[in-house]
Amino acid sequence: MYVCICAAVTDREVRKAAAAGADTLDKLAMALGVGAGCGCCREAAQQVLIEAGCGQGCACAQMRQTAAA
Ligand code: FES
C-alpha cells in the first residue's frame, strides 16, 4: 500500500527504511522523501513507524509510552 503518493513510497519501503535506522519522520523524509511534499502522509507514515516498532529515541516511541501510561 502506498503511504506517500508524492514520493511513491509504500509501507514496505517505510518498514525497510525504519529497520535501517530511518525511525523518525524527519529521517524518513531524508531517506525516502516521505512527507517532504504535500505532507498529508505524515500521520500514516508515523503509524507505519509505530507498527514497525521503531527506535526508542524517536517520537513514535514517546507516543507509545504516553499511550501506555
Ligand atoms: S503524500 Fe507524502 S508528501 Fe504528499
Protein model, in words:
Helices cover about 55% and strands about 5% of the residues. About 30% of the residues are buried. Helix 1 crosses helix 3. The chain has a two-stranded antiparallel ribbon with strand order 1-2. The protein is globular. It has about 70 residues and is mainly alpha-helical. It has a single domain, classed as Arc Repressor Mutant, subunit A, CATH 1.10.10. The longest helix has 11 residues. The structure holds FE2/S2 (inorganic) cluster. FE2/S2 (inorganic) cluster (FES) binds next to loops.
Briefly say what this structure is.
This protein is mainly alpha-helical and 69 residues long. Helix content is 55%, strand content 7%.
Any chance you could write out the topology, listing elements then pairs?
Elements: E1 2-4, E2 9-10, H1 11-19, H2 25-32, H3 42-52, H4 59-68
Antiparallel strand pairs: 1-2
The structure holds FE2/S2 (inorganic) cluster.
DSSP strand tally: 2
- Specify the CATH homologous superfamily: BFD-like [2Fe-2S]-binding domain
Question: What is the first-to-last residue Cα distance?
Answer: 31 Å
Say what the CATH topology is. Answer: Arc Repressor Mutant, subunit A
| Estimated radius of gyration | 11 Å
Work out the oligomeric state of the chains in this entry: single chain
* Element-level helix/strand string: EEHHHH
* Major pleated sheet: 2 strands, antiparallel
What percentage of the residues does DSSP assign to strands (E)? Answer: 5-15%
Highest-level CATH class: Mainly Alpha
Mean pLDDT: 86
Please count the helical segments: 4
Q: Which structural class do the helices and strands define?
A: mainly alpha
What overall geometry do the principal axes of the alpha carbons give? globular
- Weakly predicted, low-confidence segments: none
Helix amount: 55-70%
| Biggest sheet strand line-up | 1-2
What is the CATH architecture annotation? Orthogonal Bundle
Domain count: the total is 1
